[in-house]
Amino acid sequence: MTFWKFFFKNTSMIKLPINSIEKILLIKQIENKGKILDIYISIDHNINLYDLERLCDAVGWVRRPLKKVKIAIDHSFLTISLFCKKNKTKQLIGFARATSDNAFNATIWDVVIHPEFQGKGLGKALMDQVIKELRSSDISTITLFADPHVVSFYKNLGFISDPDGVKGMFWYPL
Amino acid sequence: MTFWKFFFKNTSMIKLPINSIEKILLIKQIENKGKILDIYISIDHNINLYDLERLCDAVGWVRRPLKKVKIAIDHSFLTISLFCKKNKTKQLIGFARATSDNAFNATIWDVVIHPEFQGKGLGKALMDQVIKELRSSDISTITLFADPHVVSFYKNLGFISDPDGVKGMFWYPL
């Protein structure tokens, strides 16, 4: 069985990848403003930082220096982006990344879906892929820190908050 | 000002490092069974895995494959160990490591102090050094997942649990 045949058999893809070198895969078709849009997923650290900034602006996140964002992406174990093709251009509409020790633990950061594309199952598709990729690397403890309004979203994906009383804790500079 | 003079001026060390190449620093003297022991701290990924396993055994942790432990240490952003010198041998008595994206976030894992050396301020000394090292890399969000019985220990170090309702969440394979 070739790599791609194996890969297809084990994902929910519905078409051939448009670019196998970059690992860009069609995962879903959605309706948006009366049009059918193809949604692709990419597992690639090579992200246009301005596209990412535009996406983060759209959800109102505090801006971060692009130089540091690049360092963070370069040192993330996993970086996954979602985009849709419109008029021969591609728009970044989702993103997530994870740090890891490459063995036991991973922590997921910066999960974002563009507001226009929320409520269409894309957050679940993105997170399913994150979990699948981490599990394929035999990482057994997948963690994240969830804002209160998305706790139920992650619970529906199988995440547990405070298991056995374990508390997520933060230290910030004064 | 030389590096070491600068370094000494900015730490709580009381003697010269015994091995500046390995960055091993004397941080504390403690009394143990009527003897004064010198406690050293080392910031070095090059750890004897069997010493680490012995330390983890002493606190009753579930054993993990050494091969995976090595991968985890090699891919940790920071690895800090504490040891004491006894009869010309050194004993590993404390350990902590952190994963990070090298820019914004770090997550601390595997914090352990040997039971014989607990209650002597060494956990605080270890964590102070972890925070100091992460802050020196300009990492602003330092996180960890604390078992219920150590939540107050981390609170005393300035960690906050569930800030603004943010929940630590875990996903485990079924």
TrEMBL record, chains A, B:
The keyword Signal does not apply. CDD domains: NAT_SF. GO terms for molecular function: N-acetyltransferase activity. Gene3D superfamilies: 3.40.630.30. Residues 45-174 form the N-acetyltransferase domain. It comes from the Eukaryota. The keyword Plastid applies. GO terms for cellular component: cytoplasm. Keywords: Acyltransferase, Plastid, Transferase. PANTHER family: ACYL-COA N-ACYLTRANSFERASE, GCN5-RELATED N-ACETYLTRANSFERASE 2, CHLOROPLASTIC. This is GCN5-like N-acetyltransferase. It comes from Plocamium cartilagineum (Red comb weed). The gene is ycf52.
